[in-house]
Structures are given as C-alpha cells and as structure tokens.
UniProtKB/TrEMBL annotation:
Gene this protein is translated from: ubiG
One Pfam family recorded for the sequence: Methyltransf_23
Catalysed reaction equations from the record: a 3-(all-trans-polyprenyl)benzene-1,2-diol + S-adenosyl-L-methionine = a 2-methoxy-6-(all-trans-polyprenyl)phenol + S-adenosyl-L-homocysteine + H(+); a 3-demethylubiquinol + S-adenosyl-L-methionine = a ubiquinol + S-adenosyl-L-homocysteine + H(+)
EC primary class: transferase
Record-listed E.C. numbers: 2.1.1.222, 2.1.1.64
Pathway in which the depicted protein is active: Cofactor biosynthesis; ubiquinone biosynthesis
Keywords, comma-separated and alphabetical: Methyltransferase, S-adenosyl-L-methionine, Transferase, Ubiquinone biosynthesis
Family assignment from sequence similarity: Belongs to the methyltransferase superfamily. UbiG/COQ3 family.
GO biological process, one term: methylation
InterPro entries: SAM-dependent_MTases_sf, UbiG_MeTrfase
Protein name: Ubiquinone biosynthesis O-methyltransferase
Organism in which the protein naturally occurs: Comamonas avium
This protein's record includes keyword S-adenosyl-L-methionine: yes
GO MF annotation, one: 2-polyprenyl-6-hydroxyphenol methylase activity
C-alpha cells in the first residue's frame, strides 16, 4: 500500500523504530510533550475544542490527539506508521481516554471517504516528512467542514532553521535523533499559505514556537523563522 501513496517509506521506518518511545517523557519525543500544552492551548483559543469533532493527521503515538480528546473533543487520529498507531491505541486504552479512535489510512483516502466531516483538522510536525505536502494540505481542506479550522505546524526553510532545528537539535544538543529532519523538506510559511489558497483555505493566524535550551523553556511569539504554526479556515 505504501508504494503508491503520499509517504516516504524511510520516514515510516524511522518513526516505527522509535514507536516504543512515544510516551517516554525523557526520550526523543520529550520536545513534543513539552510543546503539547502550547499547541493545544493555541488551537483551543481559536476553536473552543470541547464538543468539536477533530481529525489529527499524522498523529504518531497520539500525544496531541489524546490531549484534545481529554479536552472534550471527539477525535480521530490517523497515521501510516503501524507501530506508532498501536502505541497510541494502547495508551488510550490504558489511560481510559474517552472519545478517541485511530485509523491507519492515508489522509487523501479518508478525504474521499468523509469529505467535510470534521470541525477541526490538525496536521502537526508532518508536512516536512512527506513527498507531496500540497496533497496533504488539499486533503485537510476537503475533510474540514465549511466554517471549520485547519492547523499546521512545521519548520521554516532558512539558514537559522538549519542551524537550530538540525545542527543544534540533532548534533549538538542531541534533542532529536540524527537524521530526523532534512533541510530540503522544510517549508516556508508562504509556501504553506499558497497550498492553503489552492485548497480553498484562508490562513488567518501564525505563531512561532521558541525554545531556550539552557532553561528548557518553550513559548509562543510572533517569530516564525524556525518552528511555526498556521491557522487556516475553510469559508462557509
């Protein structure tokens, strides 16, 4: 199945090999756990997530999906890394997370099955790992209801981002495994904004995610030069 869909087999293998670490707060996924409250809060500020139907595209081990379900949303998480999904399912079972389900299905296939089905679609830290990010954005636009919201997060493509997200994070500070990111796959906000317009989505907000490696603190501000999030809305 993975030979003909929008996925890089090497990326799937990379995250599958790390699957057992998803819920280890001291593992390679510690940064995701640290930024999760910031991401969740920013999404919730825009949409008031309680009571909403949410799709988390590229959900991995379910860190964000689980948090959104605990916030009161009805959540579906999708991914193509089988081992990661099994970890997500097991965690939801063990934690007793309500109103959450996981499926191993390409987002483009789900868009054909269930167009305009979700109040909110999130796609975080995924676009920089796929061969055709525009196709992912387009499918997200098809899956969200008119008037609904789509949220993306990724890494900007510039020298500063290369230095911080790859050299510092992977080779100096060892925050992430070496080879986690490829600079050529990073995406400028203008590129995602173009993909959104082509998908019938209007970008309404952007936020940068900052990190102080000395204190371990993460925070949001207006600087989108490295890690950033975009909020987009499908018109009524």
């Amino acid at each position: 199945m993975t030979d003909s869909i929008n996925v890089d087999p090497a990326e799937l293998e990379k995250f599958s090999n790390l699957a057992h670490h998803w819920w280890d707060m001291d593992s390679e996924f510690k940064p995701l756990h640290m930024i999760n409250p910031l991401r969740l809060g920013w999404i919730d500020e825009h949409v008031g997530i309680e009571g909403k139907t949410v799709l988390d595209v590229g959900c991995g081990g379910g860190i964000l999906a689980d948090a959104m379900a605990r916030k009161g949303a009805t959540v579906m998480g999708i991914d193509l890394a089988t081992k990661s999904l099994r970890v997500a399912q097991l965690h939801a079972l063990e934690a007793g997370t309500p109103n959450i389900q996981y499926r191993e299905v390409p987002v483009e296939v789900l868009a054909a099955e269930r167009p305009a089905s979700f109040d909110v679609v999130t796609c975080m830290e995924m676009l920089e790992h796929v061969p055709d990010p525009a196709s992912i954005v387009r499918a997200c636009g098809e899956l969200v209801k008119p008037g609904g919201w789509v949220f993306f997060s990724t890494i900007n493509r510039n020298i500063k981002a290369y230095g911080l997200a790859i050299v510092a994070a992977e080779y100096v500070l060892n925050m992430l495994p070496k080879g986690t990111h490829e600079f050529e796959k990073f995406l400028k906000p203008s590129e995602i904004a173009l993909f959104c317009r082509q998908a019938g989505l209007a970008v309404t907000d952007a936020k940068g995610l900052q990190h102080n490696p000395l204190t371990g603190r993460y925070w949001l501000n207006e600087d989108c030069s490295v890690n950033y999030m975009l909020a987009a809305k499908r018109p009524l």
